[in-house]
Amino acid sequence: TAAMSTLEAAKQMRVKILKYQQDFYEKARKESSKYKAIVFGDYKDAAKSYHLAEVLKRHHVSIHDIKSDFRVNGKKFKKGYSYVVPMNQKNQRLVKAMFDVRTRFKDSLFYDVSAWTFNHSFGVDYAENISLNNLGSEIKILQLKEGGVSQKSDIGYLMPWNEYYTPKALNTILNKGIRAKVSMKNFKNGQTSYDYGTIFIPVQNQKLSSEELYDFLIKTANESHLEINGVNSGLNEGIDLGSNNFRNITPPKIGMLVGNGINASDPGEIWHLLDQRYDMHITKLDMIYFNLVDISKYNVLIVPNSRELDKKSIEKLKNWVRNGGILIGYRNAIKWMANNKLVDVEFVKPNIDSIKEVSFEEKSLKNGAQVIGGAIFEADLDRSHPINFGYKNSKIALFRNTTLFMKADKKSYNNPIQYTNNPLLSGYISGENAKAIKNTVPFKVQRLGRGRVIVFTDNTNFRAFWYGTNKLLMNAIFFGDKM
After folding, report:
1. 3-class secondary-structure state, position 17
2. Phi, psi torsion values for 460, nearest 5 degrees
3. Which helix (H) or strand (E) holds 418?
4. Phi-psi sector, 225: left (phi>0), alpha (psi -120 to 50), beta
5. Is the pLDDT of residue 281 over 50?
C-alpha cells in the first residue's frame, strides 16, 4: 500500500510538472508573440502600400491597420498608410518567404530570379519584430484611400508627386488642356511643406472657369485616389508660386518601338503600366514599318531592351532627338546607342579572367555563375534631380537582371542614381560582378541637340509587380525635358 501511494504521488508530481511546463511555454509563447509582427508602409504614398497589402490578402494573410502613427528605426509609419502583419498566424511561413532576404546560396546557377523581397519591390518602408501593441483592427475588406480636393481656390492647386497614381492624375489634367507646372525646389505653403516635383495647377488663364476647374479636379483626385490642395496664397516659404522654378509641363505623346529585334516582354510591361494603371495612350511602332512612320508627332519615344537597329532607323532617331525629342532606352539598347553616338557611356567590365578553369565543364559553370538572373541592389538618390521626383527616401531598391555596368560621371550631380559601395540587398551576384557594380550608375541623361537621351540599365517595370521604380519611367516621360 505504501509503495502504491508513493507511485501515485510520483504520477501526480509528473502531471504537475508537465502542466507547469505547458503553462511556462504557453506564457513564453504569448510573451514573445507581442514582438512578432512586421509593419510596412509609405507615409506619403497610400496606394503603393495598399497594393502590397492587396497581394497579402489575396494569399489569405491576416493584416491589420495600425492604432496610431509611430516610428521605428528612424522610419515613420502612418495610420491609413501602413499595415501590420502579426506573425502568429497560419500563413506565417508564406509571409516570411515574401519578405525574405538572402544573399548566400549553395548554387550559383538559377532558373529564374534569385530574390523576391516584397518590401523592396514595392518600395515601402519595413520593420520586423514590432510589438503587437501597435496592432489595430483586422482589415477584412481592403480599400484604396479616397481622394479629394481640400478646398476651392481662386489662386491654384498643389498636387504632391509622392502618391503612386499622380502620373494618372497629371495625364488626365494635361489631356483636358489644363496648364500645369512642376516645382524644381522644395517650398512651404501655409503650414504644409511640399517636395521637389509638386504639381501646381493655376486657376488663372485656363480653358475652364474657376468652378469648372474645381469640379474637374475633384473628379480627377477621386479617380486617382490622391489629395489635391487648394491654396489661399501664392506666397510661399522658399519659392513663390509665380517663380520660374515652376516649369511648364508638356503633354506627353508617347511612341514605343516593338517587333523585330525588340525583346518581347519588356514592351508588354511598359504598355501595361501606362495603359492599365495610368490610363495613358502609347502608340506601338513596329520595326517593320518604323522607317515609313512620321515620328515628329511624338515627343517621347521608348526603346525597350533590344538588339541594334539598322543605320537608317538610328539616323532617324538621332534627327528626331536633335529636334527636341525625349528618347528613353533600356538595357541592351544602351550598347548600340553608345556605339552610334546617341549617348556617351563608358562601361565597367568585371574581371572574370582571374577565375581558374581545370575542365571543359568548369568553363560553362564559370560563365553561368556570372549571370545576374534577377537580384535587388541599393542605390543613393539625389532627390533634387527630376528623375527622382516623388521619392521621399535618399536610397532606393532596384531590380537588375543584366551585367551592364555604367561608369559614374566625374561630376557628382550627373549621378542622381548611383549604386552604393556594397549595393546587394537580396539575391545572387558573383564576386566578380559584385566588385564591378560598386558605385556604378543605372541611369544617365544627356543632351543631344534640343532633346535628351535617357538610359536605364535596370528594368523599372519588371513583371508588373515592381511598383517601387515605376515612377522613374514616369519622371523620364513627364520631366525629361527638365533634366
Report:
1. helix
2. -80, -5
3. strand 417-426
4. left
5. yes
